[in-house]
Every structure is written in C-alpha cells, then in structure tokens.
Amino acid sequence: MAVTIKDVAREANVSPSTVSKVMNHSPSIPERTVKHVQEVMERLHYFPNLQARNFVRKTTRNIAFVTRLEPHIAFANPHMFDILCGVQEVLARKDYNLSIVGIHDLSESMATVERIIAQKSADGIVVHGSATTRDLTNLLIESKFPHILIGKPNFESQVCWIDTNNFISGQIAARHLCECGFKKIAFLGGTREDKIFTQRLNGFLSVMAEKGLNVPDEFIQYGDTSSECSFGLMNKLLACSVRPDAVICEDNTVAFGAIRSIHQHSLKMPEDIALICFDNYPLSEIMDPMPTVVDINVNDMGMQAATLLLRKIKNPELQVQTFTTLPVLKIRSSTRPCGTASAAPGKKPAKNI
Amino acid sequence: MAVTIKDVAREANVSPSTVSKVMNHSPSIPERTVKHVQEVMERLHYFPNLQARNFVRKTTRNIAFVTRLEPHIAFANPHMFDILCGVQEVLARKDYNLSIVGIHDLSESMATVERIIAQKSADGIVVHGSATTRDLTNLLIESKFPHILIGKPNFESQVCWIDTNNFISGQIAARHLCECGFKKIAFLGGTREDKIFTQRLNGFLSVMAEKGLNVPDEFIQYGDTSSECSFGLMNKLLACSVRPDAVICEDNTVAFGAIRSIHQHSLKMPEDIALICFDNYPLSEIMDPMPTVVDINVNDMGMQAATLLLRKIKNPELQVQTFTTLPVLKIRSSTRPCGTASAAPGKKPAKNI
DNA sequence: TGAATTTGAGAAATCGATTTCCTAAATGTG
DNA sequence: CACATTTAGGAAATCGATTTCTCAAATTCA
C-alpha cells in the first residue's frame, strides 16, 4: 500500500489536518512544525494522492485537447502537433495535464465535448479547428465552460478563439520584398474562394498600394495548390510582357513548382527573380534555393492558447473573446543572396521512430 | 451543483448502492429496477463523477505518453504524432485517457516517470524512444509499473518494447525489386555505424544472396543522408562500369537527391533505373516520380503498443517482453510504370492551422 | 495577576462513488 | 404448512485528501 496522509500524521505525531495544512502552506502552521512534517514526508517517500486531492478540490488539473485524429494526419497537417507541443509546454509549467481527445468525424465533436463537460473530466477545453462546429461553439458558450478554439471559426460566434493574422502575413511578405528592392511582385497559387488566400492577397495589395507600386492583373495567378499547377502558372508569369522580379507563393508546394519553372528558364534566384512563400514545412528545407517564408508560429500559438485558457479558468469573469498572433518572417536564400541570409538551420527528419 | 448518485437514488426511491449496482451491471438487480433507475438517470442527466469513481476504484483510466517535446518537433520527427494517434485510438476505444507528458532533456525522464509512478497519475506508461534511458528502464522493471517503450533501446534490458523490423524492411525492398525483374541493385545513403542502416542493408543482402544475385562493392554507397550527398553518390553509381538497374535509398531525402541525379542523366524511371526508399514522408508525395517506399506503419505500431499495454494492465502476470511490427510496401511509380502503380493517393498539407 | 487575545493543532464532516455485509421478503421444498 | 433457500435492495464503511469549526495553550495587555 502507498503511504497516505494518515501514515505521515501518525509518524509525525500530528493530525492529518496538520499535514494537509503543511502541504497547502497554511499560515497557521509555525515553521518548526512545517519542517518536522516535511521531514517525515520525505522520509516516508510520501506523495499525496492526486485523485483524492482533485476529487475533494473539485478540479481535475486536466485540459482536454479536442481534435480530429486520423492515421497519417501528420501528413495532412504538420501544424497540429506543433500546436499541441505549445499547449503542453505551458500547461506543464502550471502543473496541468494535457489529454488528447480524438474524434474521427465532425459529427462526433458535439457529443464528445458534452461528455467532457458533464463528467467534468477536464477543467478546460482546447478545440482544434478540425473539430469546430457551430453547435459546439454554442454549447461552449451556454455552458460557460472554459474553452478556446484554435482557428477562427468560419461563422459568426461569441466563442473564444485564437488565430494568426493572414492579412499581416501578406503585408510582411510584401514589405520584405520591397525592402530587398523588388518592385514588380506577383502573387501565385490560391483559389478565389479561399478566405486565407484572399486575406493574404489583400495584405499584399495594401502594401503595394501604400508604396505606390502597380500590380498588373496578370501578376495575380489563381490556381490549385499543387506543384504541377504552380509550375504552369509560373511559366505563364514568366511569359508576361513585363516580367515580375519577385513572386509570392501561397505555400511550399506552390513554391516548389514555381522554382522548377524558374530553374527551367535558367533564371537566377534571387538576382533575376526572388521568391517568398507562406508557411514553413519540412519540404522547404531541401528546396534549392531554400525559400524565405512567412510562417505562422504555431508553437507559440499553442502556448498563447494555453495561457489564455488557464487565465480564464483562474478568473471566470474574464471576457476575452479573440486573439490574433503575428506571423514571423524567416529569411532564406530565395530573397537574399547567400551569405546575407539569416536562415534558421534546418533539421532533417529523423528516420527512427 | 451537478447531479450526484444520491440525487438519482432519492428520485428513484432506491438507495445509492442500488444506483451504483445498476451502473455496474450487478446481477442482483432485476430488469425492472434497472430500467427504472436508468430512466431516472437519463431524466436527471446524470453522469457519474469520474474522479470519485476512479478514486475509490484506485485506477486513473489514464495512460501517460512520455516523450521529448520541443518546438518544431514535427519537423524533426513526423512519425511521433502518428504513433500518438495510434495509441490514442486504441485507448479511446477502451475508455482510457491519453495524456502527453513532455520532457525537454533526457535527464528529466527519470524524475518525470518517478513522479507518475509515485503519484499514481496513470495506470500505465508509454515511453517514446526519445525519452528512453537505462535508468528509466530499470525503474520501470523494478517498480513493475505497466509500461512499453516505443523503439528498441540501444542497450540490453528486460524492459518491454515494440519496434519495427529493419532487416525485413531491407528484404521487402529487395524482394519487390527482384519481382519487378531488376537484378543489378544498389544501396545508397547511410553511414556504416548506423544500426538501422546496417540492418536494412543486411536484409537486402540476404535476399540478394538467396536469389544468387551479385552485389559488387561499388553498389553499396555510404554517406550522410543529405540530398546533396546522395546526388553525388548517385552520380558515382551511374558512372560504374556496370550500371545498376535499381537503387534502394536510405530515406526520402536521399531519394530526392538520387532522383535529381537520375534526371540529369536523362534516364527514365523505372524503365532505365528503378528506385525505392525507406519511410514515407510528405516529401515523397511531390517527388517526380513518386517513389515506392517501405514504410514503418507507425500508426499501427502505436495501436499495438497501446493494446499490449492495456493487456498488461489487465493481467499483470503477463510477461510480454518485446514485439516487432512488419513494415509495409507502398508501390508507386518509381518501380512500376504508371498505370500499373497502386499508389496511395497523397493528401497535401493543409495550409490552415 | 487576571482577563483578553492570539496561535497552533485536532476532531469531524465532506466529496461521490463502490463494496461488503446484512436483512426482509419472496419463493421453493418436503 | 413449516422451514430452507433465493432474491432484492439497503445501511454503513471506505477511499485519501481538504476544510471548517472548536478549543486548549500560549501570549499579550491592562
């Protein structure tokens, strides 16, 4: 049997209440008693039973991370794990536990969260965008259960969320290129309907307008985000009457196709044409040249989400609604000649499990 | 206040014991009482307090997943999250909770696990290779705490682990190439000291010996696993007096460099030269041609790990030591002409978070 | 010195389930 | 019909902490 508070009490010749008070730093226990009891606790290798403690305190010290989880999801979304790491990091510091709650289908998310709330199996919930539904947000609001969504929902809601600022991402990309001296900048690769793409594009255009730089219609090329498609789009761009001297790509894959086209035209990067893209995936680290990227700092986003959530748990009155994080620029050789590049050294994937 | 067992008992005109017995399917409760009580539970929206239940039952229904966790770890190891998904999947089915316990440094793993065991904050532990130390395995063995390591430790130990079979990976790669009719097969990209590389190489060689096929020394090229290095190695291979008609690459990055070299030599794949590599990373899905891979089914490995662990928790007498999973072959166009390929359709990374 | 106040620590209730008796009623048996 | 045997369900202890209330001892103050 494990050592309990009673064992410590008996051994220290005090009552269980006193031991409890020592553990909880009650002011009514004088220094010498504290020391004595702590000594006994140490000697008996006493660890308080967390279950008993949480049970009586009516807390769980646990945060649920609700997300869609499927085999090979790391392929479909390498961001998710980084977010998770950020959340875990902050929770661990405050002695909170993080538990993963996976759903397979959006239709499960409602029931899953209902159960968490009803059974009080967590003190708070982080809901990943992949598990967000309208019903779910309503439930979270009505139940007043501490929560935060990762990713702004695509509908109006009073729910609490955190997301990155795509408009600013577009601005950052544009500003960087302008600072490097490029003026004829093209934008490559999303579909007109895609909100994220549109926001980035608008951010880009706002900077161009601000600087008084012209963006001809043909400099904005829509398409899907496959590398084949972007290869074709880039060929088109390079055939324009006025050739762009820089291109912003919607993501790594798009950039990959674009670079292939640029190589085929025997153009030098960044001298003849510079390239910048959004997001930073492992792929970018083996591309030649390594592309400058505007990255969502997803790890930081996870940390912020956790911080906000904990604050809300501590202070339920708090009415934080939404939060936006700033993207970060990683300058690499596709916009700066080698040598001047301040590239973060890439780690290559470990082959072991 | 939440509804408790007493509220249900009062409303149903029975005692709390009866309600408890209904929940636990005790045989001494007749059908009509069961129905009546269940009806009341439903009506009152009663959910048993899990903390109270686990407390008295002396279980946690929680499994700790101990691993090194750092920002951008998804970059360094895309496998980890897939393993996690597999573990979670199986645990959820059995109503177990999965909680992530991250460490930053190997030196923390011992203390971390000690605490989990002492505080009984989990019923079992999964330790990822990145957190495995000799001390830790000793602790797990001595404490008889239910556990399983992901990845065979690189030292002798009685600890319980699960891993993939690299020797068989090598065999699978070789067999597949032989079946496709290739006979002059080269092996590209690891360092002599790397155990995994050596095992794969030996698996390959064993098949070649079995088939009576010769492997000239120059067909085995050692190097680091960068794509630059493998580009050079592949150039060397293609300059051999007898040119190989197939090449096995140590990983995706190696394959990436090798393919670049093959393209530069204007060779057709797989007609002039076939290529196969180990592991399946997102990179492989945008390579041209898409490479056939021998993949560790890490998701399945996570599932098996969880299954074994749960079995051990249920039956502590069980003396399972080690477990090995079989790699899977994903045939794509680098070894089979298009059309005959049975490639799994690749999902491209989602750009949203 | 005696009264008032502060301090230190214990007794007992509590949290919400489970589980072990135990008993009354129902049923079966000779 | 009397007695033995099931059956159904309740009373109460329990798990290991926390917390409130209480009180004796120590200290301060007039």
Number of strand segments of chain A: 12
Identify the CATH homologous superfamily of the largest domain in chain A.
Response regulator
Spatial strand order of the main sheet of chain A: 2-1-3-4-5-11
Uncertain parts of chain A: 339-346
Mean of pLDDT of chain A: 92
End-to-end CA span of chain A: 37 Å
Order of H and E elements of chain A = HHHHEHHEHEHEEHEHEHEHEEHEE
Strand residue content of chain A: 15-25%
- Tell me roughly what share of residues is in helical segments of chain A: 40-55%
Q: Please give the CATH architecture of the largest domain in chain A.
A: 3-Layer(aba) Sandwich
Radius of gyration of chain A: 26 Å
Question: Can you tell me the overall shape of chain A?
Answer: elongated
